[in-house]
Model the fold of this input.
Amino acid sequence: MHGRGYPGAMPGRSSSSDMSEPQWGPARTFRAGRVPTAHTTSSAARFPADGAADEPPPARPAAAADRFPWQADEEPAAQYGPPHTHRAGRAAAGRDLRKPAYRNDTGNDFPSQLRPAGGPHRGRGRRRRRPLRRGLLVLLLLLLLVAYPTLLATTVMKSVTKTDALAEAGQTGHSRGRVYLVVGSDSRAGANLNDDTPGQRADTIMLLNVPWTGPSTLVSIPRDSYVEIPGHGMRKINAAYALGGPSLLASTVERATGVQVDDYVETGLGGFAGMVDAVGGVELCPDRDMDDKDAGLHVGAGCQQMNGATALAYARARHSDPRGDLGRVERQREVLAAIVHKSATPGTVLNPFSAFPLARSGGEALTVDESTGPVDLARFVLGMRSVTGEDALSMTVPVSNPALSTPHGVAVEWADSADELFAALADSDTDRIRQVAESAN
Done:
């Protein structure tokens, strides 16, 4: 038999009912975030004095499941090992890291609450918000991509002048792709003095073929070309504009070339100056020094930047060019191509401070057919831009006699290869067009 307080007494057992040694040790508890201090039991506490034998032993702490809800955060220190706590993002010392940490709304760590510490719930919220932001950003970009070009096209279409240019066109000829009749109109200034036709003239006449596939082709028709004008006999082709306006000019071009005209685009040569200034000037390359008093042009040979007034004089000049009207046709084509090329660059189109002034000035200088819409104009601009590259197909109708004597003054006679050129143009046959261009040179 072991006596009371015998040092060799078995833990958890006693030799008599008045045993005073606590069965579970000191009933100290801790809350999360508090570090319980290590305790030692003094000899007086382990071996109570006589007279304390009648004191009941300390009660065993209730299990967590037996406590009231408001006491659920109290646990014996021995159950959780080292009293270190952690929040989201910190590892708890002495705890199995493979087990997730939990915490309640007050920040205390205990397994009775099943809310993960810090992250899974909040992380899912962040992941939900990020796709929503990306979706809104993509939607905004799509709206800009649609709204901005639409607004530019609307600005142009509000400014253009419309005419019934194709009322008598489409009765002859055929074409694959879309063919634009491009006209540059001007007053009688600089006109042939032997020409007795009054009124405004078409100084620039071009056919632009924009096929569904393949490169575009631009063919210039000399304004003094001697052709048959319906109802007026053989005359210079530019007289058709003065005699019957855009409609008679379109039908005359169709009959003379055999190519069906699908769209009509006219610009006043005076509008060239406004468009050139709107794009900040264009680079043009005269092949010789030019001093034309009638046009007000004084430039040297070589590539150079020109403003609106100088570019207009460069397009109008004829008397200082030994090629006469044929040289002027090429320069007008060069100026128009330079305007279109620069106006279609990203630096101009994406800059609203240059795009909208250009759209307004360009629209005010344009006259189109009543059936021409924004898509047709956009296709025209892209087609004109494509004929300014290195592999562009741009040429003048082959001429056999540039000084044909006629009752209406000196005119231009087409070569026999012109028929082959127009047939290839109608078929959008670029290989044949190149062959005709090479043979003409």
